[in-house]
């Protein structure tokens, strides 16, 4: 047992979830003593979100800029990524709104929660009091340092977009700055890796506090969230990705069987980095043009995160309903646009889903960011579907784009897929 838990973060989170559930049910008074664990974990994440988000968005724009230099192929790849991630996000939000996901939870922020929310209150007041003009003006920070000091995600996004666009046109002159941003990104990615090691602590505190305060009913809501997420990812893979393969003349079942070993590795490790070389080799053996594979697959790992988009869409509505927050059409649009931008280039960041969700919620502070603690426990289970869904999307994207470009060898693919 000790050997299993040693270095196995997933097992540690599972144990923390079970212990927290038991503590909340049988020792509810313990909730006051362990609540600080979750607060500490969330503050550490929020501390690193701003700089990490700046690096992710800036480097994502630089990557997209270099992608465009390959011409029509790069442009079509970018278009495909945007359409698919937007479709996934939109479907998730519509389904969550139709089902009223999260209603009945009744999350009430504590004093500590309110303190965490206060950092974002200024932006919310500007948005309500000054309307569209106030919102547009609030997007531009007085100074770049001011945006980071206040943790204003939208201002950080605007600054990152400007930096990325300018650097992409500077060529060699901007190379030292690009390397600096890459180094800062690596630094904060490593920092996030250290912070994520504390996830079992945060999960134990969150599960104990949530169960003690809201009972098993909330656990049922969280289980429902997770089940719905698995279902939506499955339906998206079968319907959207499988449908796309059929249009391209590829049998989806044979295609899935071809990648079965890779899918198993991704599902058990909740990460797809280890199978990247195998994925690219197998796609070439399927008859996908080498240039298409070389451009689309690496770019897709950062820009084509369909399952993450589904997660963000469900999580936004779940937390809004759970906290009794009424979202206007403008606020929903702001959240979705922020989610689409912040999720680009997020792959490879430890605990990236929680990081991106925290950054997204910060764009509309009406939703208490502390409500994220409710999803901490189930996020690690949702990570299985998220990893498999993202990987499936990046298996299918090169095939569809190659077919679009007429650079797919159907004869070679049919022969490869017929093999057991």
From TrEMBL:
Q: Which UniProt keywords apply?
A: Membrane, Transmembrane, Transmembrane helix, Transport
Q: Name any Gene Ontology BP term.
A: L-aspartate transmembrane transport
Where exactly are the transmembrane stretches of this chain? 41-65, 77-99, 187-207, 219-242, 310-337, 349-368, 380-404
Per the record, GO CC terms? plasma membrane
Localization per record: Membrane
A Pfam family annotated for this UniProt entry:
SDF
Main localization is membrane
Q: How does it sit in the membrane?
A: Multi-pass membrane protein
This chain belongs to the protein called C4-dicarboxylate transporter DctA
Q: Which organism is it from?
A: Gluconobacter kanchanaburiensis NBRC 103587
